[in-house]
Design a protein that fits this description.
Butyryl-Coa Dehydrogenase, subunit A, domain 1; Butyryl-CoA Dehydrogenase, subunit A, domain 3; 52% helix; three-stranded mixed sheet; alpha+beta; 12 helices; Butyryl-CoA Dehydrogenase, subunit A, domain 2; 396 residues
């Protein structure tokens, strides 16, 4: 167990510490993580040392009380070094948001949050399930409670970094007779569950997330079940934050391709002083696209932070539609940026063995459109738009 550290004793900002992890550790091991398809253990050992897994937790519970904007900044910074590391870090923070926002009324969850800050626990997620088509708002699995103990068995089609998690937050029906949408979320501690691998993970990109399928069997104290229904948790924190944090991940990965493209054009310019390199015009073009993606992300962050203090906005159909649209747009912009950068870098960017290579970036970004498939999101959004008015105003 780690010794508790007063967050006020940390002399460097979280972003400075993240930059050190990204540049000195994540970037160093990113190619091997991708090539072998392994969990980025060195990066997460460094994140734990730098106290960055629990930095979102409020200060009164042992964290640093960072803002949502700052968390997204950390995710994007890590994404510039290793897309898989950033995605795992982002998914961990999405689960952390459930604890931060929905522990009210449960002393056990508050104490667990303190433990997360003290011991820098890594949180995983078991929300997808075989037989429901990826719809996390429905469950086949049900939790059974008897004599103050819970038990559940879940056929999870994907638990990213499941083997490496210190705890897994799993969704299930409230009881065996409950409707599929009447769900709760349970904190399954590592000592309380067993995992049996059912689906392997050998993919084009995001290989280091190790998003393996498992049978999850967990039994523990019934107090580990969140008091608030999962429907409220999903609407108020998890789903909204997921779209934005994913976008921050993709932005960081895309930004790295532009940084490499700029360095390449500068190197070409030094070879022939006074002559504008052929890629300079395309560099201006991709820089504008990256700015578009950044503006989309920052607007989404600002709107979400406004919704945190405005329940009517948080529950509005138009707000939900906007978050869905941000995810779709960002996923498309990310691959567009990678393609534009590739046109600048040419074969140098296409080669795996080149210092200018953006092969890993490109493959990681291709996951964005299918990480909750864009077609499914657009289908849901179209239904929302039939029941709401499009917001054409400027400003909050």
């Amino acid at each position: 167990m780690n010794i508790a550290i007063d967050p006020t004793s940390l002399t460097e900002s979280a972003l400075t510490r993240m930059a050190r992890v990204a540049d000195e550790v994540a970037a160093k091991y990113a190619a091997d993580v991708d090539a072998v398809g392994r969990f980025p253990k060195e990066t997460f050992e460094a994140l734990k040392r730098e106290r960055l897994l629990g930095c979102w937790i409020p200060k009164e519970y042992g964290g640093e009380g960072l803002s949502f904007t700052e968390i997204c900044g950390l995710v994007a910074r890590l994404g510039q070094a290793c897309g898989s590391s950033a995605m795992v870090y982002g998914m961990h923070q999405i689960k952390m948001s459930s604890l931060i926002q929905h522990s009210v009324g449960s002393e056990w969850h508050i104490e667990f949050m303190r433990e997360c800050a003290r011991d820098q626990l890594l949180l995983g997620s078991a929300t997808t399930e075989g037989g429901i088509g990826g719809d996390l708002r429905n469950s086949i699995c049900a939790v059974e409670v008897k004599d103050g103990r819970y038990r559940l068995t879940k056929q999870a089609t994907c638990i990213s970094y499941g083997w490496e998690s210190d705890a897994i937050l799993a969704t299930c029906r409230r009881h065996p007779d409950a409707a599929s949408s009447d769900q709760v979320m349970v904190v399954c501690r590592k000592e309380d569950y067993t995992l049996r691998e059912t689906v392997t993970w050998d993919t084009m990109g995001m290989r280091g997330t190790r998003s393996i399928g498992f049978e999850l069997i967990s039994e523990g104290d019934a107090r580990h079940i969140f008091v608030q229904p999962f429907g409220e948790i999903a609407a108020q924190s998890m789903l909204a934050m997921a779209h934005i944090i994913w976008c921050a991940t993709w932005y960081g990965i895309a930004a790295d391709t532009v940084v490499k493209a700029q360095a390449f054009v500068k190197a070409e310019a030094k070879k022939r002083p006074g002559v504008i390199p052929p890629g300079a015009l395309r560099l201006a073009e991709v820089s504008a696209t990256l700015q578009k993606m950044k503006s989309l992300l920052t607007a989404g962050i600002a709107h979400y932070e406004a919704a945190l203090v405005d329940e009517n906005l948080m529950n509005s159909l138009m707000f939900i539609a906007e978050l869905c649209t941000i995810k779709v747009s960002a996923s498309e912009l990310g691959t567009e940026i990678a393609q534009q950068s590739l046109m600048i870098l040419g074969l140098n960017g296409y080669r795996n063995d080149s210092p200018w290579s953006i092969c890993r970036n490109y493959r990681d970004l291709l996951s964005a459109a299918i990480m909750i498939n864009n077609d499914r999101i657009l289908g849901n959004t179209s239904s929302l738009l039939l029941m709401s008015k499009i917001d054409t105003s400027i400003g909050a």
